[in-house]
């Protein structure tokens, strides 16, 4: 009778992530979870992979305001966790297959589980009537500009369009603050071609 | 070459069991693409670990979801026991598994009823839920609550079940199974039910593996993964454990897997009741998790594999607790089954993954 | 035949009485373990306040100077923590549920005044305890002076 569950934690650096992920994919392991946890000045991320009974967890830290590459090209179910991590912790992922751009969970304050993140501090700075003592680094990319860059990426590299040009969109207003805003108008959707039915041939 | 329209589906829809929003791109009644969206019941429960200490958080973990309530309290307790290296008494492990298997029976019965309601067979829906009341009465007599049990805590279980009472439970379950087998015939052999389920929402084994589907949804496509077969806890004392899989990968196969798992759960309960040892069922827990300690744990809930992660920081409040529910993995698979299906089959496809959105976005 | 599998069950259900109950005309049946509401035996309560500290939803308030014990039944989640924590076991979980109401309200129980015999018994016990302490102290003083 087994009572000990395997607890394997491997510490890596953020640059080694993609090579390790490709290695797990080549060996046929399954992607389980991304978990974030706020630490001083950044976020500690844990990626978990499993293959039956053995399960291995990669552990590394990223700083506030950094961007790491997405693994949803290799593991399609990762888009859920990457959107959630961005909403709750402020860690930006580049190239998610379905990118909700911060509106996945519709939280009322930005990045509630990481109060030190770039977005949270910017929101506090914008809404404060008096200038705060906290200095915001001038090299951090504000959120508005990053939406534009992600849509540029969509036009250049996505193999199939989001919504075909002749689509009629029913009763959606493209206001970014509306709670029921339509996802296609704002998100960059990279459909990695596993299905050709979405091509707008008509 | 018809026009393409985008139809919003949900979050409030009479046939949808959970608040999920889909944007369906359809052309002449065939769905081309589906874009899911969630976030309607996010309550921020993971942040409550900073307010409730690790013994009290079991109550919060239980109330994340109504159907998988006991499963989450069990998973949380097992994770904290792995974090603090606590040994659980044997009788407590057996009782936990008995309650967990009863929870699986009640969840699958609920799902079978909802499936029958989705394709219009309301009589079958009512009969399934009438048989489910047998299990809910057992819960009320042994723990005091019908859905929220408050039976599991860190280190053991809250109350004991006498051995004579356990035998009475097994007899009642046997009587229920005799009636249930008539309903099983309807689900598996009735012509009108089959015409709605066979061939609907097909996903192949390779696609299911790529999208990392878990639970009965994955097992219906041929993936052989079940945490119960690894033998943690009292599952290791079972004589053998056969996976129920199917190779068809459509809606009919998923219903078949879930409907047969109910019978398997009753057999597991009978075997454990025969083998249950005597002894303590609880223990006093002292101390707090160490600083910088990490623990992970997995559990087979009725919907699939659920993953728990805990991190301690030396105080009685945990630093971080994370639950990853099976529905969040199956959403990618659901989106794939929706491509190319008819508009009338969309609610059935959404139902066959057994969505539980309230645990997915705590 | 691929249809009509439920005929036997349907005919049985036609002649049996219904599985549902006409609540609230018919009273519901509870088991002895059903978690309904909390009852407090105020006579044995020592107003220590442990139940107030353990309650996860802050439903219980204990006021020691006023000698009252208050519970907000609509905030109670029937988790059984207070019953387990009480050192005098004066709290108990009764099976019937709190009825629905149109306004939130709390229930306050005040400790009753002691009757004449109880007051006399309490004074006698205190006097006996003071005598015992004085006797022990006198015996200890005598031993100390003998030792020196």
Task: Describe the protein in words.
- Chain A has 202 residues and is of the alpha/beta class.
- Helix content of chain A is 26%, strand content 20%.
- Chain A has a single domain (8-160, 178-191), classed as Beta Polymerase, domain 2 (2-Layer Sandwich), CATH 3.30.460.
- Chain A has five helices and seven strands; from the N terminus they run βαββββαβααβα.
- In chain A, strand 2 and strand 3 form a beta hairpin.
- The longest helix of chain A has 15 residues, at 143-157.
- With 362 residues, chain B is an alpha+beta fold.
- Chain B has a single domain, classed as Cytochrome-c3 Hydrogenase, chain B (Orthogonal Bundle).
- In chain B, 46% of the residues lie in helices and 14% in strands.
- Chain B has helices at residues 57-62, 69-84, 90-118, 122-142, 163-189, 191-197, 205-210, 215-219, 251-275, 326-338, 346-352, 357-360; strands at residues 4-9, 21-27, 30-37, 152-153, 156-157, 291-301, 304-313, 320-324.
- Chain C has helices spanning 7-15, 50-54, 81-85, 116-147; strands at 37-40, 60-63, 68-71, 91-94, 107-110.
- By secondary structure, chain C is α+β, with helices and mostly antiparallel strands.
- The relative contact order of chain C is 0.14.
- Chains in contact: A-B, B-C.
- Strand 7 of chain A pairs parallel with strand 1 (4-9) of chain B, so a sheet runs across the interface.
Widest β-sheet, arrangement of strands of chain B: 1-2-3
Q: Which strand-content bin applies to the residues of chain B?
A: 5-15%
What would CATH call the homologous superfamily of chain B?
Cytochrome-c3 Hydrogenase, chain B
Through-space gap between termini of chain B = 43 Å
> What's the helix-strand series of chain C?
HEHEEHEEH
Mean pLDDT of chain C: 83
What kind of sheet is the major sheet of chain B?
A: 3 strands, antiparallel
- Low-pLDDT segments of chain B: none
Distance between the termini of chain C: 108 Å
Features:
heterotrimer, A: 202 residues, alpha/beta, Beta Polymerase, domain 2, 4-stranded mixed beta sheet, two-stranded parallel sheet, 26% helix, C: 148 residues, alpha+beta, 2 domains, 3-stranded antiparallel beta sheet, two-stranded antiparallel sheet, 4 helices, elongated
SSE diagram, text form:
The complex is a heterotrimer of chains A (202), B (362) and C (148).
Chain A: E1 8-11, H1 17-27, E2 30-39, E3 42-50, E4 55-63, E5 67-69, H2 78-89, E6 92-94, H3 118-127, H4 143-157, E7 168-169, H5 183-186
Parallel strand pairs in A: 1-4, 5-6
Antiparallel strand pairs in A: 2-3, 3-4
Chain B: E1 4-9, E2 21-27, E3 30-37, H1 57-62, H2 69-84, H3 90-118, H4 122-142, E4 152-153, E5 156-157, H5 163-189, H6 191-197, H7 205-210, H8 215-219, H9 251-275, E6 291-301, E7 304-313, E8 320-324, H10 326-338, H11 346-352, H12 357-360
Antiparallel strand pairs in B: 1-2, 2-3, 4-5, 6-7, 7-8
Chain C: H1 7-15, E1 37-40, H2 50-54, E2 60-63, E3 68-71, H3 81-85, E4 91-94, E5 107-110, H4 116-147
